[in-house]
Specification:
Largest sheet: 6 strands, mixed
Strand order of the largest sheet: 6-7-8-3-9-10
Strand content: 25-35%
Number of helices: 9
Mean pLDDT: 88
CATH class of the largest domain: Alpha Beta
Low-confidence stretches: 301-306
CATH topology of the largest domain: Rossmann fold
CATH architecture of the largest domain: 3-Layer(aba) Sandwich
Distance between the termini: 20 Å
Shape: globular
Number of domains: 2
CATH superfamily of the largest domain: P-loop containing nucleotide triphosphate hydrolases
Amino acid sequence: MNFLETNDVVKQFSNHLALNKVSIRVPEGKIFGLLGPNGAGKTTLIRIINRITAPDSGTVFFKGRLSKQEDIYQIGYLPEERGLYKKMKVGEQAIYLAQLKGLDYFEAKKRLTKWFEKFDIMPWWNKKLEELSKGMQQKVQFIITVIHEPELLIFDEPFSGFDPVNTDLLKKEILELKEQGRTIIFSTHNMASVEEICDEIALIDRSQVVLSGNVSEVRERFRTNTFKVQLKEEAIHPDSELFSVISLKQGQSSLEVMLRKNESVSNKDLLASLLNQYELVGFSEELPSMNEIFINTVSGSKNPQV
């Protein structure tokens, strides 16, 4: 089941077409990567989903029905541009914002205390936000986003400002939220994170969806028939009509090979050819990274595949 759908959403600002018939399908209980270069239209789409602005045409479906204003209480949104009050005490404003999301004072304080202790920021409860580091401010913003336990979470560049340790901490929290059944839209420029945590993606470029699908299937779609081969002995240049060598360093026991353009050649054929010449200890296909796919698709060096 799709938790959220947009169908042919169009949005124009003055002379700029921000979204041109954009349709996405966000499966329930999954992490959905909303990708694209700066200015592609991602933030506009997120604002429409949040009902901050309305589409000029097209529809948004929430849990199988048309989206309505009350749905915002089931959405937690962490925007790229953070918006906390720098002069206000951290705990005080966290409780205030949690109450705006429907929690009473005592429940808000109980939940916030649990999260602040989990993120090791309880000593900063009575400090002004401006006294916190950028990373600590990010943690507070994340907590406020999830505190009312919404069904849909939207994270726009959630790792911005985090060091590797805290980035890893937040990734684990996002994956835990998924395990709890939350549906998550994750917008980022970090393609390594997409490979790590996303189930599905949609890539928007120039106001349109140019690529979408399951992450593993998308990588398969862009496969280049390149293989990494680990050998027991030192590598020498192999001889074969099935493949060409694209990387071979003298004195090393590894090489990269690419199948020649021949639809009838199978991985089994390639492996047999290599076994005739070497004793292998490793053999794996090198699928393109999401970063390579992003660049190739956006730059137009490959035909978009939707």
